[in-house]
Amino acid sequence: MSLLTLLPFIVLIGAMFLMTRSAKKKQQQAVDMRNQMQPGSGVRTIGGMYATVKEVNDDTVLLDAGPGVELLFAKNSIGAVLTDDEYNRIVHGVEHDLKSDADLVPDDASSLTETGDSAADATADDKAVDLGKKDAADEPAEDAPAGEAKTDEEPKKTDGDSEAK
Description:
Helix content is 38%, strand content 18%. It has helices at 3-35, 84-92, 110-113, 118-126, 146-153; strands at residues 42-45, 50-56, 60-66, 69-74, 78-82. A five-stranded antiparallel β-sheet has the order 4-3-2-1-5. The protein is flat and about 85 Å long. The two termini are 61 Å apart.
């Protein structure tokens, strides 16, 4: 056998090795993250529930999901251990932002459309825009008899025979 025939097998084995290595690395990171849980940490389960860790055992975690609600979960069902800031932002809506309140976007968009130039607003409001359709009978024909205007606007109908086929 030549090296050329063995090359696809070597590449395939190398790709499988790299994929399993990266998967093992991700699994190890998840195990380390779950082992770093401490009582009082905020977590998100793989089902999407946010709770606070109350007690950590070998294979289980006791979570406090609310006042008087304690849930026992398997340790591998914890999807992420959150930082205190992230947990408070998601669960309680508390933002720890160093920016001033003036930089925040208001809930309504009215202040975003105000330009502060009252003269420009007054001239823009003076002109009324009519978006309604007007009938051809309501408008008088300009500089042309009604028959000629009608022939220019409507295309001629044919029997379906066209020269471009």
